[in-house]
Design brief:
271 residues; alpha+beta; four-stranded antiparallel beta sheet; 6 helices; binds zinc ion
Length: 271
């Protein structure tokens, strides 16, 4: 599933191909995504210039002259930047054709992705209005993490993955951030000391930034957003390394199930 770094990588990959370009047509081949694509969107966006790209949580935003397209990659979606005449593949659901002769083509086998258009402030769109802070924004800081952990008995890893508290910290990134912060995933959120909260805030940001940086270097014309960690995988400390020696202390990495997800940690490095 595409996580925040994959969506940000996609945004960066798409950006130079779309900004300043006029939309010639939005061709919808299959409107039945997670929500049906509204019939009026092609007429609304035709002829508009893409002003800039943005991202909120896992939504990719294309800001046009008089509105914003909101695209979600869902579980299996990906965007490719292609010459418009490139033959379509199965599961190619729409094309955003630009005046450069390039198309932004959306493929999504499982059809959990979505496409919306709004002429209001996109941050007030029902899909975005109630989202928690971005982990890479200044609003996600040690004071915030301190505040939200104080009265919560839930395990810290599950708190990090709770998208009503902070958006876009998926399983891989929560596991890796906890390793870097030297905190065990099962610790009660409220048991974290101030210095641990400071370390964890920094670790979450560092892990996501690194994933984005590495994702960026693998990007060409093809914008991969299949949720595969790709090159980032070689830099993982604990995720999917069950039984292998910790890269810091050589203790075998342990795995257990937490909230139906696999969690990995080093019993020596993490307290
Ligand atoms: Zn270790």
């Amino acid at each position: 599933m595409p996580e925040l770094p994959e969506v940000e990588t996609t945004r960066r990959g798409v950006d130079p191909h779309v900004v300043g370009r006029k939309i010639v047509a939005l061709a919808i081949h299959e409107p039945r995504l997670r929500w049906r694509i509204a019939d009026n969107i092609p007429t609304e966006v035709k002829g508009q210039v893409v002003r800039q790209t943005g991202r909120r949580a896992k939504y990719l935003l294309l800001e046009l002259e008089s509105g914003t397209l909101l695209l979600h990659l869902g579980m299996s979606g990906s965007l490719r930047v292609l010459p418009a005449e490139t033959p379509r593949l199965i599961h190619d659901h729409f094309d955003l054709l630009l005046d450069s002769g390039i198309t932004l083509r959306f493929n999504d086998p499982r059809r959990f992705g979505s496409l919306h258009y709004t002429t209001s402030d996109p941050n007030e769109h029902p899909l975005l209005a109630h989202l928690a802070p971005e982990p890479l924004d200044d609003a996600f800081n040690a004071d915030y993490l301190w505040k939200i952990t104080r009265k919560r008995k839930v395990a810290i890893k599950q708190l990090l993955m709770n998208s009503t508290l902070v958006v876009g910290v998926g399983n891989i990134y929560a596991s890796e951030a906890l390793f870097r912060a030297r905190i065990r995933p099962r610790r009660q959120a409220s048991s974290l000391k101030r210095d641990e909260v400071v370390r964890l805030t920094r670790a979450v940001k560092a892990v996501l930034k690194m994933a984005i940086r590495v994702g960026g270097t693998t990007l060409r014309d093809y914008v991969n957003a299949e949720g595969n960690p790709g090159y980032f995988k070689q830099k993982l400390y604990v995720y999917e390394r069950n039984g292998q020696p910790c890269r810091v202390c050589e203790t075998p990495v342990k795995q257990f199930t937490q909230g139906q997800r696999s969690t990995y940690f080093c019993p020596t490095c993490q307290k």
